[in-house]
Amino acid sequence: MNQDASQPSGTPPGTGTGAQPTGEGRPVWGEQGQQAGKATGAGGPGAPPSARSAWATGGVTFAGVLLLVNGILNVLQGIAGIAKDEVYALVDDYIYRINLTGWGWILVVLGVVLAVTGAFILKGAEWARLTGIVLASLSIIAQFMFLPYAALWGLIMIALDFFVIWALAVYKPDAAQA
């Protein structure tokens, strides 16, 4: 009878225990997906991260991408305001009225700083989280003041900035790694 070399003699084919590294016939992994005989904090894989920390970790990555893209879009929006004042609708009776060329420069500078901060958030720089919160807050104010010129776009950007602030504020790096 031809028997597979990986099967111990006397073990029926297809039920081999040769793949069990413990040698005791017990599986290495328990029913919860943890290594048998190891405590959660003893260097083993442990329990999966909580849903809250997974959301926060993914949220920070998404916030970094949003800041980066938001910055690039602000630069493009600012360049449009600088190059041609006719790109945006002119508003006569607006309390925060400012020359569109001035708005263009504000958006270009804010956009460059947003994009750089977003890139550093993606690289994991700790200082970039607080800076991102401050810049997203400034972006909300700038977009609010720019609402008469591009209302729908301003509302979308304000909503995205709120998400960025939330994601950066709730992220706890120690909780996500534990």
How would you describe this structure to a colleague?
By secondary structure, this protein is mainly α. It has a domain at 60-172. The protein has five helices and no strands. The protein has helices spanning 51-83, 100-123, 126-145, 151-170, 173-177. Helix 1 packs antiparallel against helix 4 (151-170). It is elongated and about 50 Å long. Mean pLDDT is 73; it is low at 19-23, 26-30 and 33-44. Keywords: Membrane, Transmembrane, Transmembrane helix. Residues 60-172 form the DUF7144 domain. The chain crosses the membrane at residues 60-83, 103-122, 127-146, 152-171. This is DUF7144 domain-containing protein. Residues 1-23, 30-39 have a biased composition (Low complexity).
Radius of gyration: 28 Å
Q: Determine the strand fraction and express it as a percent band.
A: under 5%
Portion in helices? 55-70%
Tell me about the largest β-sheet: none
User: By helix and strand content, what is the structural category?
Assistant: mainly alpha
Strand count: 0
Give the SSE string. HHHHH
Gap between N and C termini, in Å? 52 Å
Number of helices: 5
Q: Judging from the principal axes of the Cα atoms, what is the shape? A: elongated
- The average pLDDT score comes to 73
Q: Are there runs of 5+ residues with pLDDT below 50, and where?
A: 19-23, 26-30, 33-44
Domain DUF7144: 60-172
Keywords: Membrane, Transmembrane, Transmembrane helix
Transmembrane segments: 60-83, 103-122, 127-146, 152-171
Protein name: DUF7144 domain-containing protein
